[in-house]
């Protein structure tokens, strides 16, 4: 028995749902909707995070596609939530037949609640505390951290990294370090050279001219 075009689209859609589900497990739910049967649209679910079941009706987006062939074929990365209130990021892809009618939709729903918790934990883990620098006897690690933090902040404000800065940007950064008294630290030039990936002698060429703040 030959399959119709719509049946072929749904068959291929099931393969995609199964493959994406295995690839994106366990944080992304992948659902196949049969838009030719809106009352029993859900035909496949991988990584069921929403608690829905096969045979449940089409979503509002699915119904909109059925009513309007001009509805966007792809809606990506829009905020949504599961029935229990968990936040999600969703993408919906409509599949049309050769007549331009929506036959199916593949929807991806990412549970962002767990990722948000991980992100918050990582932020707390890498967070550091600022303390006044004791120029007379600052421990080496504190000195290096202060210089590195200043260089990274300067570079990031210019959409680059310390090693990716231009010569002009490096001169400007060294002037800023001098203005903040960071060049007074013991071995500061050696630390800066290592962070910039240049020789110590090169750092001296970035120093402010004589008469400027050290």
From TrEMBL:
<dbReference type="InterPro" id="IPR013559">
    <property type="entry name" value="YheO"/>
</dbReference>
<dbReference type="InterPro" id="IPR039446">
    <property type="entry name" value="DauR-like"/>
</dbReference>
<dbReference type="Pfam" id="PF08348">
    <property type="entry name" value="PAS_6"/>
</dbReference>
<dbReference type="InterPro" id="IPR039445">
    <property type="entry name" value="DauR-like_HTH"/>
</dbReference>
<feature type="domain" description="YheO-like">
    <location>
        <begin position="11"/>
        <end position="119"/>
    </location>
</feature>
<protein>
    <submittedName>
        <fullName>PAS domain-containing protein</fullName>
    </submittedName>
</protein>
<feature type="domain" description="Transcriptional regulator DauR-like HTH">
    <location>
        <begin position="147"/>
        <end position="207"/>
    </location>
</feature>
<dbReference type="Pfam" id="PF13309">
    <property type="entry name" value="HTH_22"/>
</dbReference>
């Amino acid at each position: 028995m030959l399959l119709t075009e719509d049946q072929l689209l749904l068959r291929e859609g099931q393969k995609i749902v199964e493959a994406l589900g295995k690839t994106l497990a366990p944080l992304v739910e992948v659902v196949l909707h049969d838009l030719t049967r809106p009352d029993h649209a859900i035909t496949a679910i991988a990584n069921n995070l929403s608690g829905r079941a096969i045979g449940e009706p089409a979503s509002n987006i699915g119904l909109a596609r059925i009513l309007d062939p001009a509805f966007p074929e792809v809606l990506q990365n829009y905020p949504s939530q599961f029935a229990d209130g968990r936040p999600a990021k969703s993408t919906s892809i409509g599949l049309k037949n050769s007549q331009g009618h929506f036959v199916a939709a593949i929807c991806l729903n990412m549970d962002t609640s767990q990722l948000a918790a991980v992100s918050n934990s990582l932020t707390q883990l890498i967070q550091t505390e600022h303390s006044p620098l004791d120029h007379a006897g600052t421990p080496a690690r504190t000195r290096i951290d202060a210089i590195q933090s200043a260089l990274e902040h300067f570079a990031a404000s210019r959409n680059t990294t310390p090693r990716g800065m231009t010569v002009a940007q490096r001169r400007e950064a060294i002037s800023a370090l001098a203005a903040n008294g960071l060049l007074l630290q013991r071995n500061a030039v050696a630390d800066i050279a290592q962070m910039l990936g240049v020789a110590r002698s090169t750092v001296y060429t970035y120093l402010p001219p004589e008469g400027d703040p050290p």
